[in-house]
Amino acid sequence: MKVLFSILIFILTQSIFSQDCFPESHLRFSHKVKSVDGLTEFSAARLVENFQKVMGEDVTKQMNKKLIVELDWKNDRVNASATRDDDNNPVIKMLGGMARHPRLTKDGFLMILCHELGHHLGGAPKKLRGRSTKRSWSSAEGQADYYATSKCFPKLIAGSVETSNPFGSDNKSVDKNKMLSNKCSTDEICLRAASAALSVTEVFASIKGAQQFPMLEKKDRSEVYMTLYKHPRSQCRLDTMVAGIFCRKYVDEPFDNIDPLIGACTKSEGDKIDQDGMRPRCWYFPEELFK
């Protein structure tokens, strides 16, 4: 009886304290599968090490904790997660199946790490704890996406975390190259961030079994009337990441755990339309009062 009770507690704690970047899926990619950039265990470990070095400074500064990143290369599952250890240190787990996903680039790999860190440093809006009205330590999925491109990824590039071809090493899609160039011109950070965001959201769409992948030239025009804390649709996630790219002027201003306006691009008084850099209404309801 005690054993069963312990197992039940473990399952409940994992569901509450572990935040998956992607919904659970049956996708598996063994070590024989290569990602679009040919990511190896060695190169993935190098990216993790550099990520930990650059972003660990923010974790120490904002949380007074140590950033822990675990790469489980032998695990074939396609997922990544954010959790905390017994000392409340932020922990990020990246599974090998995710790293080997055929649509995931090296910059996409970094963007997923940024998203997971966004659950820890993304600030408000925060998820709810189970069915209660109390806020969790974890930022909403959309907010973690917004943090990834507005705060984390630009710092990685500025910190010289391994240069990359923004179009991916396969360079197959001329249309994709044009979309990126039209969106970012010659801005390297924008090009790499947009390409990485596209890679990550394509992975998300493949997990969801979507018939159509997200596109940079499109937008999710839906509007919520209550902030969505779970996974938004793939196009909405891409829109959120692109918004974060254009909110770069606040890159050094941390998000706040209570006030969702601090550190974010918001509508100025008198603005009649949403501006570039604002969180999209497909998941975020700006007038909502957060506790």
Describe, in plain words, how this protein is organized in 3D.
With 291 residues, the protein is an alpha+beta fold. It has one domain. 42% of the residues lie in helices and 9% in strands. The strands form two sheets. A four-stranded mixed β-sheet has the order 1-3-4-2, with helices on both faces. It is globular, with a radius of gyration of 18 Å.
Shape: globular
- Let me know the number of strands: 6
Strand order of the largest sheet: 1-3-4-2
List low-pLDDT spans.
Answer: 2-17, 168-172
Instruction: Give the SSE order as H and E letters.
Output: HEHEEEHHEEHHHH
Mean pLDDT: 84
The level of helicity is 40-55%
Attribute tags:
single chain, 291 residues, alpha+beta, four-stranded mixed β-sheet, two-stranded antiparallel ribbon, 8 helices, 6 strands, 42% helix, 9% strand
Briefly summarize what is shown.
It is built from eight helices and six strands; from the N terminus they run αβαβββααββαααα. The chain is of the alpha+beta class and about 290 residues long.
